[in-house]
Amino acid sequence: MQVSRAAMQELGRRFAVARPDTIVIATPHGIIAERVLTIGGTKIAAGILGDPNNRHVKAVFENDLELSAIIEAEWEEQGVPFVRLVGEEKQQEAVLPLDWGAFVPLWFTAHPMNPRPQVVVIAPDPSLSREKLVRAGVGIA
After folding, report:
1. Is the Cα dihedral 39, 85, 46, 129 positive or negative?
2. pLDDT of res. 51
3. Count of CA atoms in the C-beta half-sphere (13 A) of 67
4. Cα torsion for 95, 99, 102, 108, to the nearest 10°?
5. What is the pLDDT of residues 51-105, one digit of tens each?
6. Edge-to-edge, what's the strand order for the sheet holding 37-40?
7. Are 9 and 54 in contact (CB under 8 A)?
8. CA pseudo-torsion sign 88, 90, 91, 96
9. For a designed S-S bond to 36, which of 20, 26, 81, 100 qualifies (C-beta 3.0 to 4.6 A apart)?
10. What is the model's pLDDT at position 49?
11. In this structure, what are the phi and psi dihedrals at residue 59, rounded to the nearest 5 degrees?
12. Of the candidates 45, 46, 75, the residue with the CA atom closest to the CA atom of residue 63
């Protein structure tokens, strides 16, 4: 655990120097839909992690809906199967729940920054082919 924590702290230092406007994060533990990638479509993403002793951390992040729309357009062009989580009519009121696979890295990278970068949260179905995942990466790039 010490090695992982030290690596996350180093990543946080690098993010603080780079000062990104947006962090795109892919989580294997997020909201997964069969045979597609999911992409957060809400204005807000939030998470909370706790333990049996009632200690917890929580954080709220703003989703970069503009970049999400650009990624979606690229994925359509690349033939990448995806689903947006929450349509435009509910973007402002719904909250994308962050699983620990997204929350923990964001806690060490985006959470300490002021102002905080926006986020784009992606979750791929593990059954997707390598070729589709590469095309998804091309679309993100």
Report:
1. negative
2. 86
3. 17
4. 100
5. 889 899 999 999 999 999 999 999 999 999 999 998 677 767 889 999 999 999 9
6. 22-26, 118-124, 37-40, 82-85
7. no
8. negative
9. 81
10. 92
11. -155, 155
12. 45
Alpha helix locations (H) across 57-111? 65-78, 100-109
Strands (E), the chain: 22-26, 37-40, 44-50, 56-62, 82-85, 95-97, 118-124
Closest by CA to 43, choosing from 14, 21, 63, 18, is 63
Give the pair of three-digit tokens for residue 72: 């979606």
Pull the structure tokens for residue 40.
């957060």
- Which tokens in the block code for residue 126? 């593990």
> Residue 49 is encoded by which pair of tokens?
């992690």
